[in-house]
Write a structure and sequence with these properties.
The complex is a heterodimer of chains A (522) and B (343).
Chain A: E1 10-13, H1 17-29, E2 34-37, H2 40-49, E3 54-58, H3 66-74, E4 84-88, E5 103-106, H4 111-123, E6 137-140, H5 146-155, E7 160-166, E8 169-176, E9 179-185, E10 188-189, H6 191-197, E11 204-208, H7 222-239, E12 249-252, H8 265-274, H9 280-286, H10 291-303, E13 307-310, H11 326-336, E14 348-355, H12 358-367, E15 374-376, H13 378-381, E16 392-399, E17 403-410, H14 417-421, E18 427-434, H15 442-455, E19 459-464, H16 472-481, E20 490-492, H17 501-514
Parallel strand pairs in A: 1-2, 1-3, 3-4, 4-5, 14-17, 14-18, 18-19, 19-20
Antiparallel strand pairs in A: 6-11, 7-8, 7-11, 8-9, 9-10, 12-13, 15-16, 16-17
Helix pairs in contact in A: 9-10, 11-17
Chain B: H1 3-11, E1 27-28, H2 30-47, E2 51-62, H3 70-87, E3 93-98, E4 101-107, H4 111-124, H5 126-131, E5 135-145, H6 152-168, H7 170-173, H8 181-189, E6 198-204, H9 212-227, E7 233-238, H10 247-255, E8 260-266, E9 279-282, E10 291-298, E11 302-311, E12 314-320, H11 323-336
Parallel strand pairs in B: 1-3, 7-8, 8-9
Antiparallel strand pairs in B: 2-4, 2-5, 3-4, 6-12, 7-10, 10-11, 11-12
Helix pairs in contact in B: 9-10
The chains are: A alpha/beta (522), B alpha+beta (343).
Chain lengths: 522, 343
Amino acid sequence: MSETANNPYILLALFEDDEVQAFADLLKTKGHETRHVSDGARAMDMILKDPPTLIVVDTLLPVVNGERLFQTLKDNPHTKNIPFLFISYKQAEIKGFRGGTDIFIIRPFQWEEVYGYIKQALHFSIKEGAKFEEKHIQGNLSHMPLVDILQVLDFNKKEGTVTITHGKEKAVIYVKGGQVCNVTLGKCEGEKAVYRIFTWNEGSFVFEPVKVTMLKKIDIPTGNLLMEGMRQLDELEKSSKIFPADSDVLRAKVDTSALPKGLKPIIYEVLLVLGTHSRVKDIVDKCKVPDLEVYQTIQNLIERKILEKTDEVIDESKVVEEFIAPGDALKIKDKVIAYGSDRMSVSHGYIFVISTSTDLSRNLMKASVDISGFHPKYDLLDDTNLDEYAMGETGHIRLYGELDMIFFALAPMAGLWPLQKSFLSHLTGVLVLWDERGEATLEDIQSIKNLIALKKDVIVRHVYCGGGELDDNSKARYAKAFDLSPSDSIDIFSSISKNGVVDMFKSFFNEMAVGTQRAEGS
Amino acid sequence: MSTTGNDIRKNTSVTIGLSRGAYGARFYDSFFTNEFAKLETARCERYASIYSIILIHIGDFDNGDREPTKRELDDFMKTMVAEITDVVRNCDVAGLIEERKILVVLPRTDYLGSLITIKKLTRALEPVTVKGHPYASLIFTQATYPQDAKGYTELLNVAMKRIEISKDSLWERDKLKTRLFWEVVAHFTGGTLNGFDHTTFELGANEKLGHEFLEKINKVIVEDVGRNAGSRGILYIAPPSIKTDMPILNTIATVGKTATKIFVVGTKKDPELEMRNATGITITDPRMSGFYFTFFINAQAAYAIICKEVWGDIYTCFHTSNPYIVEGLITKFQRDSMLQEQL
């Protein structure tokens, strides 16, 4: 951070009196102190003696112009982090302009908008010391605990990744400006993953100083994260004898739909997950909140006789491993990559789910929770969600190479095509879901398919969700409605039996990788 | 305008006396321009870089019924070329590649960068498009390597095709280029407009889609912005009202910092709120009341929806994914509301 004054102020290096007055009045009403100079020499002098938090400067400032002032100050270690707000009558190139920090505005301007920019500039000032290093750092947690590693990175405002290997588990911590922005550990990420890693006393780590483009999912400052992590670790150790064992299998003792509203969200999340996973370990894994909170909630529910342990034994061999080979996942990633996109920065692809009702998407997502890497959107799974047409993400599968394949629900209305078209760039496949109740919308769905086919060459799977087998007449009728060729198949999905969902998705992703069926095969 | 006049204007050659250097040292002939673009393509392929091209199509001349004189055409071209070479950077190359088509090659420029250059050119060429005599209708399109095509010829074909699409688009057909923002909004929400990439529909009580649909659209767009955090873009959301506990503000706050500039537009009636990852803008124009819109553009997508409260709880909505219309709406909104013109 720059060495700012004890009384922070904004410097107005402007020479038009009316403008100075207007800026001063605006900033004063917003609680900011200002000082004014009318030429570049005086500005330089004042800034070096008493650095401001922001410099508002006219590019045509007399004696030393705005650009020259900027060039000089950004090389000075005491002033290099001060953001500049350039004002001019026309667009100009400022050498060294720092996008995201400095601002350039052209007269005339709208004062509320300008203040918005000033607020942003004051909020996102550059953190000092973020430099790239050439050397990696590595070691073992037994010699240097994670807490120490993160403190060192925070103190030095480092950017990069810390990869920790603990037996068969591997975690990656993404650090930017010294702050932890995300952590991934197998299927979980965010704070949940961080607090799990704190329990590791052993494991090798490597810090690589690379540019981090990962989406920021942890907002807590590193210092607070460490304190909270230690607290959770202590609590878990103290309470481990009280909490149920990971291998315990639970069931609901009461009708959970009769529970009152207004309970903590974690309770609803645990009960929702219990609908598909009954082992304590699985519930803890699937819930998004940190483990301690999940264990505490489960214990609480057991004590209140809402849940109870059963004698059921879960067959471990039924746990599904990676359901798509890494090679196929990379082929899909190739299809997702838009022309010109950096392979490393592509993080997701879309699978449109066009369904004649939200129920069908919901049932399919519920049936898919056992697929390795699958994360449903639990609010969609909630049966009390009465949205007739879901829109947006309903779940995603994380594939090898950290590629998220997002199931993106679209309302089956051809009139909404402009909105649907906006998401085509990352599209790799389409799932069409219907049953007898939705036959009136099949024509609209076919229109949407045709429009997609005009723009993009993607795999389309047709999934009949009415339950039971289709007779020949029905098959013919639907094949005609969807303009299917004799070689195109219709998958059958039953929400009751849930059979074949895993195989259906495996085959769907395999087709995407290989690209054997085409949308226009219609 | 008579048919004869139109024929004359369409057939008027603009390449009178054109040779290298005829209009200035930095304006090139088709051979040089094409070769430069091919070299740039090879360079970008070698170094995994990007570049863009802008194609300017010189359309009809509006000069009454008579044919523009040679002198007038010469002056027209000189003015046009002078403005183009003044706007573009030293590293950019501009030249006439065929009758009525000027190509500008922009090294190391992405999609949004090329849109910004088009904006600058549009403004600089106003003397020959709306103010001068004769003045011509100009259509600007762009294409970016390798996003739109992997070779120069294909890239040029993409840009050419976009000119044809643009000529038939709502924006050109209904002459919206020269209208003010609110005139354009009134045009879009005043009737039923259905095309390949734009439609009109109703929202509200007793309709297939309720009011919450607009919130869903905004949420979905913001989430997509969050997923493409590194992609430059601009998003304006003008909701029916701004409240502290608005779901969209929470969604914007949780997506984190992105390269997309997000603006939440309100009126004087709305409270001033602290917004994370977004800038609040207040528009005092009374016409804002009763209209709600969302405008979004980035390298991968463009989307605009405008909703007008018709009566009771019903909105008439127009939405489009045509990037020219979306970019046009954003530019007009910025200009007419005295906001910073930026992408």
